[in-house]
Amino acid sequence: MSQVVPARAAPVSLTAAAPVERGLLRQLLWLALPVLAEHVLHMVVGLTDTYLANHLPGDAAAATAAVGTVSYVLWFTGLMVGAIGTGSTAIIARAVGARHRRLANSVCGQSVTAAAAFGVLLAALIYVAAEPIVKLTGLSPAAQGFALTYLRMLAVSLPFSTIMFVANACLRGAGDTVTPAIAMIVVDVVNVAFSFALTYGWWGFPEMGFAGIAAGTVIAYIVGGVIQFVVLVVGRGGIRLHLHRLRPHWHTMRRVLRIGIPSGAEGLLAWLAQFSIVIVINTLDPTSAWAAAHMNAIRIESISYMVGFAVATAVATMVGQRLGRGDPRGAERAAYLSYAAGGGFMTFCGLLFVLFPHGPADWISADARIAELTATCLRIAGFVQCGFAAAAIFSGALRGAGDTFATMLINLASVIFVRLAGVLVVALWLGWGGLAGIWIVLAVELFLRGVLVYGRFLHGGWKHVQV
């Protein structure tokens, strides 16, 4: 009889587990697909800006290098406001899981207040310091002129974009990924439409050339900020922005920042490392071909990693809500299922990058040298997409649990001591490999980071973090 019982018990266990896994998969798809739709539109916007810059009359390489460099400023603003958003998502997810709506609404109000204040401060800083920032980038003189135009126009939209990003984080923490996705799809459609119209003078609009690319971004961010503020005031996803909640409440704001500041510090230091790499690339090639190819490859690679980031956003909410309900095993299952889905797709994309890099590279640039460099970068990146997926998705799971400090240390150590130090050694000291050598370093670092983040997840300390 002792041999019969296990044989009969196993099918029962598997049958009971199957609906659980199907339920997790349904929730993952429900949370990730709207975010994925949003990321697809972001990818289209990025490709649109890059395509327009690549095909401008005159010095297209300089225009493309400027768009690519300014995208790092956009990334910087997103990372900084993400410090608020990370804390908002984690606490709101726990509060919703525990059915504590009042706390969720309070966190929403404090997050919007912090985002608005940060956006105004950042706008003033970037507008005043635009010229020194552009000179610091190491761009060619022609590219510096393009970048200066873009930055000063961009500053106008920053208070709106910071509110938009934080509103999205609050809604996602409540489990509503549909509303942010719809809003961002509107924003991205506006961006693409106005960028084309103002660059080429379509539909009666003035022909602005390069400035039209920047103007499309500014208009879109203003629209997005207004839409998402109204959405929060009306109430969606189980949370609502009551205007009296905008008045600073320092205890709640400290809770948000206590979780978010490690993520913000991580983002700032990681950005400094990444921006330093861009400066190296800009400086080593005065023709701007390296910078253009570098940005082209990143834009094309986004076809892969946009899925990983969408899944990472979804798994942060899933893990946070399950921990809020006291179900750490469910949180762990959600993370593994998310990696199977997102990591599988990214690995498949990596295979395509290795085998067929020239198709997208030739499409995005009419310059044969830039296209060839772009294809080389894509082939290198293809080999490490599975590690890139682990870094993104398991980091999302850890942040959803509120385990932001350990995640910060891992990511910073990898970015600074492997990525930045490796590029400086290979490119400046050894002078080896050109742009391809730099991308090999970037690829090795991404794979190693994925291993380290997964090791932290295996450790299990995230299951006991108090937020």
Question: Main traits of this protein?
Answer:
467 residues, mainly alpha, 84% helix, disordered N terminus
Number of domains: 1
Assembly form of the protein: single chain
Gyration radius from CA atoms, angstroms: 22 Å
Low-confidence segments, given as residue ranges, are: 1-17
Number of strands: 0
Largest sheet: none
The fraction of residues in strands falls at under 5%
Structural class: mainly alpha
Fraction in helix: over 70%
The SSE order reads HHHHHHHHHHHHHHHH
Total helix count? Answer: 16
Protein model, in words:
The radius of gyration is 22 Å and the shape is globular. It is built from 16 helices and no strands. It is mostly helical and 467 residues long.
Give a quick summary of the entry:
With 467 residues, this protein is mainly α.
